[in-house]
Amino acid sequence: MSIAGTTIIQEDLKNIIICVDSYEDKLINGRIYNGFLGEEKTFYNLYQLLFEILNTIDKMNFPRPATEKRAFANAEKSTLEKQQDISLQSYQYSLGKISTFNIKILFRQNSSWQGSISWVEGQCEDTFRSALEMLMLIDSAIATDK
User: Where are the domains of the chain?
Assistant: First the structure.
């Protein structure tokens, strides 16, 4: 669905699932999943994890960056909207071998991300004010789990 060129995304499709499969000497690897894109991406280090998250939120165009130049446009249905029509079905992913996190990025301000993170195995949730704080929460959860 769109209103004046803006894609409206269902709330559950905004979640990004991080499945951590291995974690040794602070080296993390695993999979990232988002229902809007309907596919799983593998990451082998923190840089790739952050890069995949950034690519995902850019493709969804949510949340929009605070510094982006905005304009009213009368655009035809984008390929993302067409892809969303296909992706609206329920999605399946397997939990991480070590830990699983559900991330919801709500804002992109001050050149970083703000949102909430849920640790599935620990059954707790917290908010983060930056990408670095999000990574520190993931690290502390995995360290606690071990």
Answer: 2-145
